[in-house]
């Protein structure tokens, strides 16, 4: 038995949800470029769950359902108020999503209908949780979601308590489309491993949030912003990045386990970053990002991944840095739950082996002799 470090190249499941073939990402066979330009996040979530794009009445139905489920149990809001104000926002989300299960009477109903309903419910409640936590820690009351509004609109509305700008809603909606699913990434794998024991959907999503939090995965978008803040201005980019590379440190937002020729989502976020920069009259973050890309790609051949330009996009949308990864979770909730449903449909326990590298033929030394 020989281990493959990081399971690189190992095909661990079959799936009909999303694919990465020759660097092209599709959801249910539709190219991400097409979806990014022509579909809303709710259409994409429907596509991931049901395997087809919704017609107008199906879409209206889903938006209605999301509106109905988006309100949080009062007990969970009370719990959010007890969290330390400075707690990590992904840790808060992880705990809060786990708590949702306590107030869902169907949490352990394993029928497909019940699990699909819970998938939609989790998708509806995650944005409300993120926005509510963000307000509560600032000493503000949470804002209730508006019925009939999209997730992108509602998230910005619940975060600020004000009618969001249409450009911001459109940009966030497109970012949600781009992050919705990604084959067997680490957090989706974590979700599938968890539910393959026939544990409940909340356990699966809680595991996934824990995996997404790390800076080698979803946490990279926040880490990119930390780096941009450390750099401070365009003129410092070159010396900062060169020093990091000389030191063999990783540049966050670059590289990918699967894409070696570039992440197809990054160009959409780069375009969005440029357009938002122009619109707000502040191109500095965009220009700094382009310069970083020039150096890192030039010297290391590494291309930006989905997390790189999303940092400047979200900052230009005036979203606090530590909500970037929770926003990733808002989007990926659709993919996680679609994969969980698929896992249940064709389940087998996921239990690989380990190559043992420890000592052999050891004996118990009596405690007095250790
Ligand atoms: C949504 C997402 O999860 S996208 C990924 C988000 N994560 C990041 O942006 C964090 C930065 N990137 C990375 O850490 C990696 O590229 C990963 C984790 C994404 C992929 O990693 P792996 O496939 O395991 O590649 P690994 O980490 O083994 O790197 C291979 C080589 O490239 C180098 N490398 C990879 N990424 C980077 C980077 N961002 N900056 C500098 N060097 C890098 C490594 O140092 C290593 O070099 P070596 O062979 O000289 O030791
Ligand atoms: O697929 C991966 O390894 C990480 C990634 O890009 C994602 O989850 O969107």
TrEMBL record:
What is the top-level taxon of the source organism? Answer: Bacteria
The keyword RNA-binding is assigned to this record: no
- Quote the catalytic residue positions: 256, 307
Describe which pathway this protein belongs to, using the record's wording.
Answer: Carbohydrate metabolism; tricarboxylic acid cycle; isocitrate from oxaloacetate: step 1/2
Q: Which GO terms describe its cellular component?
A: cytosol
The record's section on Gene3D superfamilies has: Citrate Synthase, domain 1, Cytochrome P450-Terp, domain 2
Q: What would be one Pfam family of this protein?
A: Citrate_synt
Reaction it catalyzes: oxaloacetate + acetyl-CoA + H2O = citrate + CoA + H(+)
Query: What's a Gene Ontology MF term here?
Result: citrate synthase activity
The answer to whether keyword Transferase applies is yes
SUPFAM superfamilies xref list: Citrate synthase
Q: Where are the transmembrane segments?
A: none
Q: Which UniProt keywords apply?
A: Transferase, Tricarboxylic acid cycle
Provide the protein name.
Answer: Citrate synthase
The organism that produces this protein has a lineage beginning with: Bacteria, Bacillati, Bacillota, Bacilli, Bacillales
């Amino acid at each position: 038995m020989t281990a493959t470090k990081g399971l690189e190249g190992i095909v661990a499941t079959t799936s009909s949800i999303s694919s990465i073939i020759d660097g092209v990402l599709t959801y249910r066979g539709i190219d991400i470029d097409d979806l990014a330009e022509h579909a809303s996040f709710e259409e994409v979530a429907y596509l991931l769950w049901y395997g087809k794009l919704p017609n107008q009445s199906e879409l209206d139905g889903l938006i209605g359902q999301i509106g109905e489920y988006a309100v949080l149990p009062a007990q969970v809001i009370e719990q959010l108020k007890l969290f330390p104000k400075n707690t990590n926002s992904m840790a808060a989300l992880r705990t809060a999503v786990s708590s949702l299960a306590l107030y869902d009477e169907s949490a352990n109903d394993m029928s497909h209908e019940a699990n699909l309903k819970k998938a939609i419910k989790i998708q509806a409640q995650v944005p409300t949780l993120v926005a509510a936590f963000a307000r509560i820690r600032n000493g503000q009351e949470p804002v209730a979601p508006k019925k009939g509004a999209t997730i992108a609109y509602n998230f910005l509305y619940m975060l600020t308590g004000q009618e969001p700008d249409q450009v911001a809603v459109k940009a966030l909606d497109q970012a949600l489309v781009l992050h919705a699913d990604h084959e067997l990434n680490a957090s989706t794998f974590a979700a599938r491993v968890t539910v393959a024991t026939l544990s409940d959907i909340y356990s699966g999503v809680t595991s996934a949030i824990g995996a997404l939090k790390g800076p080698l995965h979803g946490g990279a978008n926040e880490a990119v912003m930390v780096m941009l803040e450390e750099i401070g201005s365009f003129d410092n980019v070159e010396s900062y990045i060169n020093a990091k590379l000389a030191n063999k440190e990783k540049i966050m937002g670059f590289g990918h386990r699967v894409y070696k020729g570039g992440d197809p989502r990054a160009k959409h976020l780069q375009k969005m970053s440029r357009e938002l920069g122009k619109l707000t009259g502040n191109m500095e973050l965009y220009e700094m990002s382009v310069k970083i890309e020039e150096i890192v790609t030039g010297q290391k051949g590494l291309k930006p991944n989905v997390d790189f330009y999303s940092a400047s996009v979200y900052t230009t949308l005036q979203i606090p840095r530590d909500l970037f990864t929770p926003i990733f979770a808002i989007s990926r909730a659709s993919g996680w739950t679609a994969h969980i449903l698929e896992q249940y449909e064709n389940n087998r326990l996921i239990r690989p082996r380990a190559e043992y590298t420890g000592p052999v033929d050891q004996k118990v030394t009596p405690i007095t002799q250790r």
